[in-house]
Amino acid sequence: MAKLADKVAIVTGAGRGIGRGIALRLAKDGAHVVVASRSAATVNKVVEEIKTAGMSAIGSTVDVGSDAQVKSMVAQTVATFGAVDILINVAQSWGSPGRHALSPPETPFEDISDEEWDYTFATGFKGTLHGMRAVLPFMKSQRHGRIVNFGSPMALAGKPYMAPYNATKEAIRSLSLTAAHELGAYGITVNCILPGILTDALADNLKDPSQREAFMKKLPMGHLGDPEHDAGGLIAFLVSDDASYFTGGTLILDGGAAH
Question: Of the CATH numbers 3.40.630.30, 3.40.50.720, 3.90.1200.10, 2.160.10.10, which one belongs to the domain with range 8-253?
């Protein structure tokens, strides 16, 4: 039997990149997956990909910055599958409303507008908070749950010129640790992943061949991790019964680059 058979998982930011990889992996391990993202086109594409492979998924077009939309997504999940066992908070946007960026704009922190600060926190920290609050009544009632949130190695290192992104990712990491302490008594685990994985955003930052070559030389393993195999594999373990005693962890998944 697949190790996540009949578990119900919500993955935000699942339309592409790491979120898509995680959604595919959890579905392959037997979970019913809710593919959640802001773009209906990408949501539908990933849902179709999962269903074509004979696995279970539904889509949810949602702006995680909206508490009401997130609550509606969770209610739809429970109405469809009868439970919610797993929440993976990957979603994060950059830029500002109406002016989205593929990767975090690099700007001195004193020159960043309040609009960009607010948007980064709304789609990152607040989006993660909205998801956690929405699933907790169900997870507490069933006295079981797995929550995995996403921080960043760049935030941990304090990478220059990315203050809003760094700040929201470290806020997510702090929230995860606090929630792990508060929710352990309910059988709910909360962990935080700091990934260094090949994504659209990272590829956008490495367009220049010489820059990409220099970056790769810094990686101890000589290559970037894969969203489905590496990120999805770690997540599949963390949300399984094998990791029932592991909570409050910060795991850096970057092939050793940050160490």
Answer: 3.40.50.720
